[in-house]
Write a structure and sequence with these properties.
The structure is a single chain. The protein is mostly beta strands. An eleven-stranded parallel β-sheet has the order 1-4-7-10-13-16-19-23-27-30-33, with no helix packed on it. Strands 3-6-9-12-15-18-22-26-29-32-34 form an eleven-stranded parallel β-sheet, with no helix packed on it.
Length: 423
């Protein structure tokens, strides 16, 4: 297990395969450039797990990063502002194919960042007590694609700093491109906001899926849970030119909430095109809208429709060649110490890690044996029932997850009875 890493003014380094736990900050980069952080396991940081300050050309990929803000004596994240990955005043940052969660504040925050900014293929998991992704303070043009924002069905399960699960993303800035993300069972979906010094203009949201929100719960600000929210704050700001296309929005108390008092013609300036809505209500300032069809014809809105149940996702498309895929875990129920077999494809030849569910997050362990289509591993004593997946050691990505039921290990056999020799 490594100590924390703090680099200042360093160029062209690779931080790979580190296992860092319980440090105030796991990795801190200041004024650094062309750094790659890959295949690391960072858990229970006292502050931020990864902190980037005035950096350029940083890649954070294929890591398991779970837990930030763990300065509380009982091991709970408490500190507002301790993010899992915090980017401040940095440029040209790529954050991809990571598993992240259990933050005292945001999972990923991009504040005052510039250049090429990519958030791609990450798996966000709760508990997290701020937004899973926050983009603001003049950060523009972020590409956010193919991420999984996964929440918890229990919105108030732990007495932490925010008390409730927040939304998937809080967004300000211009020209962001969201596409192909899935938002499920979070404390809210996307909030586009403006106010003093903030705008949210000309962003596109294509093929986004919003499902299974906590309909009876409240979001982090005490409001009904909203799938898509556009909110004008105090001061001068604008929310114009944003477009949602082919999005599926289901199962929130409010599917669409537009409250832009003082801003002109919200529906004329923003568009919903060929979107499907169901299982919730609409709230639009000054507009009589009770169903998706009422959006059509207002501004550039068209082709929207209401469905009583979410549409069938249809057959799962075949995986891209070379994509690691997990098809089965045998047996599906096991106890600590048992050996389970993982079957699938494209596990590679460099070996795999097995990522197990544990009470406070995830645990990475080496497989006992691995080929391109099969791997075996011993269930660790820390493992609990939950999703399990594999991550290739060569950095080529992680598989999908499958559930594994973990039971108690059987008691040891009783000692044999004592026998005395007869003389």
């Amino acid at each position: 297990m490594a100590n924390r890493v703090m680099l200042d003014g360093v160029h062209g380094q690779i931080l790979q395969g580190l296992d860092i736990r319980g440090q105030s900050n796991c990795i801190v980069l200041t004024n650094c450039s062309d750094i790659r952080i890959a295949n690391c396991q960072l858990h229970k940081a006292g502050g931020a797990s990864v902190y980037l300050d005035h950096c350029d050309g940083i890649t954070v990929e294929d890591n398991t990063i779970f837990g930030s803000g763990y300065n509380d004596p009982q091991g709970r994240p408490e500190h507002h502002g301790d993010d899992v990955v915090a980017c401040r005043d940095s440029k040209n940052v790529t954050i991809q194919r990571n598993v992240l969660g259990d933050s005292a504040h945001e999972c990923i925050s991009l504040l005052s960042c510039a250049g090429t900014l990519i958030v791609r293929g990450n798996r966000f998991q709760t508990p997290t007590y701020g937004s899973l992704l926050t983009i603001k303070n003049g950060t523009n043009g972020v590409i956010v694609e193919d991420n999984q924002f996964a929440g918890s069905p229990d919105v108030t399960r732990s007495p932490r700093s925010h008390q409730v699960h927040h939304r998937a993303a809080q967004i300000s800035g211009t020209g962001h491109k969201f596409r192909g993300n899935t938002i499920r069972a979070c404390g809210g979906g996307y909030k586009l906001s403006s106010g003093t010094g903030q705008v949210c203009n000309n962003c596109t949201f294509d093929d986004e899926t919003f499902l299974d929100f906590i309909i009876s719960g409240r979001d982090g600000e005490g409001n009904p849970v909203r799938a898509i929210e556009m909110q004008a704050g105090s001061g001068v700001g604008s929310l114009n030119g944003n477009r949602f296309t082919r999005c599926k929005v289901f199962g929130a108390a409010e599917l669409l909430h537009l409250a832009m008092v003082g801003l002109p013609s919200d529906l004329a300036q923003n568009a919903w095109i060929d979107c499907e809505f169901g299982g919730g209500t609409f709230y639009v300032t000054g507009q009589a809208i009770s169903r998706a069809e009422d959006l059509n014809g207002k501004g550039a809105c068209s082709g929207n429709r209401t469905l009583s149940v979410p549409p069938s996702p249809g057959p799962t498309p075949p995986p891209t060649p070379g994509t690691p895929t997990l098809t089965a875990i045998t047996p599906a129920s096991a106890a600590a110490g048992d050996v389970v077999t993982f079957s699938g494809s494209s596990f590679g030849t460099a070996g795999v890690f097995v990522i197990w569910s544990v009470p406070n997050g995830l645990l990475r362990r080496d497989a006992l044996m691995a080929t391109d289509t099969k791997a075996t591993a011993s269930v660790p004593v820390e493992a609990v029932t939950g999703p399990v997946f594999l991550r290739r050691k060569d950095g080529a990505g992680a598989t999908n997850s499958l559930p594994l039921t973990v039971g108690a290990a059987p008691p040891p056999p009783p000692p044999p009875p004592h026998s005395r020799a007869v003389t």
